[in-house]
Design a protein that fits this description.
The complex is a heterodimer of chains A (62) and B (237).
Chain A: H1 8-18, H2 21-39, H3 44-49, H4 51-56
Chain B: H1 2-35, H2 52-82, H3 90-112, E1 121-122, H4 126-153, H5 159-167, H6 174-179, E2 185-186, H7 191-220, H8 223-236
Antiparallel strand pairs in B: 1-2
Helix pairs in contact in B: 1-2, 1-7, 2-3, 2-7, 3-4, 3-7, 4-5
Classes of the chains: A mainly alpha (62), B mainly alpha (237).
């Protein structure tokens, strides 16, 4: 389509061709690990250590 | 090319995270510690598992990672895919994405579960609250996407009409707010301090997202960006 120079579809295709599945898996794994640690780990050491940031960031806890 | 976007997102995340870590160190830590003096029966059984110094330091580190996470996910990944459909000039595009990020991560969930100071007991079980929080994150993301779709559909309309219509989907968030089960709260913190704490939390997150957007826009002014733009232009010929 003329004028349609850059689309979301094109970006997705571009990511598919430039990134290997292993790179994507590592990236998503790191993000999941980071999010999980900050939000869901209930181990007392981690949970209590992050107590202030959870309140400070307005994340519901107890 | 793709990794260039990732790097800029991560770099914005590092700067935003450091700024937010500073906010935690200077504002959130002492504020939370002060509010804990009002605590009578804390939700956790017994004493905390770690010292207050450890909590302060780990929370600062957590704040830095909090910013890094949003930098990577929102500006490293989401911005790469959404850049072609985000509206306005380069700075506006970042601010729109930051607004959507704030709405998704904090704004929408807070409509149901506003930030609470320590020591406040809530009647809704923590499992149910986590589910509502997660559900409202999905709702916030959904409303953001819907706003974007409406904006693109109304390309022929006057800018004011277009903007107002695009913001209309935000009203949909009132629906889950009405449907939430009652969550009675009680605690020893005076009401005025609860309000001050809530707005401090809101301010902290807004500043974090604004920092991410600002740093990301500033990074994009580098020559790397124009080389990449040329890259896409060549590809599309």
């Amino acid at each position: 389509m003329p004028g349609d120079t850059d689309t979301v579809r094109r970006r997705i295709d571009r990511a598919r061709t430039t990134l290997t599945p292993a790179q994507m898996a590592v990236g998503l794994g790191l993000i999941a690990a980071l999010g999980f640690t900050l939000l869901f780990v209930q181990d007392p050491l981690v949970h209590d250590g992050l107590h202030n940031i959870r309140h400070g960031a307005g994340v519901t806890c107890h | 090319m793709t990794t260039g976007y990732l790097e800029r997102g991560a770099l914005a995340g590092v700067v935003g995270g450091l700024a937010y870590g500073l906010f935690v160190a200077l504002v959130a830590n002492p504020f939370v510690a002060g509010l804990e003096t009002f605590e009578s029966g804390h939700g956790h059984a017994g004493e905390p598992a770690v010292s207050s110094l450890t909590t302060s330091l780990v929370s600062i580190g957590g704040g830095v990672l909090w910013g890094l996470l949003f930098g990577i996910v929102a500006f490293g990944i989401a911005y790469y895919f959404l850049e072609p459909v985000l509206p306005g000039d380069p700075v506006t595009r970042r601010l729109v994405l930051a607004g959507a990020g704030f709405l998704t991560v904090s704004g929408a969930p807070w409509l149901v579960l506003p930030p609470q100071p320590p020591g406040v007991e809530q009647s809704l079980a923590s499992g149910a609250r986590t589910a509502w929080y997660g559900g409202m994150m999905v709702a916030g993301a959904g409303v953001s996407v819907l706003a974007g779709v409406v904006y693109r559909r109304l390309a022929a309309r006057r800018p004011a009409v277009r903007t107002a219509a695009s913001l209309a989907p935000l009203c949909l968030l009132a629906l889950p707010v009405v449907l939430t089960p009652a969550n009675a709260v009680h605690g020893g913190v005076p009401a005025g301090l609860v309000v001050a704490f809530r707005w401090t939390v809101v301010f902290g997150q807004v500043v974090l997202w604004a920092t991410l957007a600002g740093v990301h826009a500033w990074l994009a002014d580098s020559t790397v960006q124009s080389a990449e733009a040329a890259d896409f232009a060549v590809l599309n010929d």
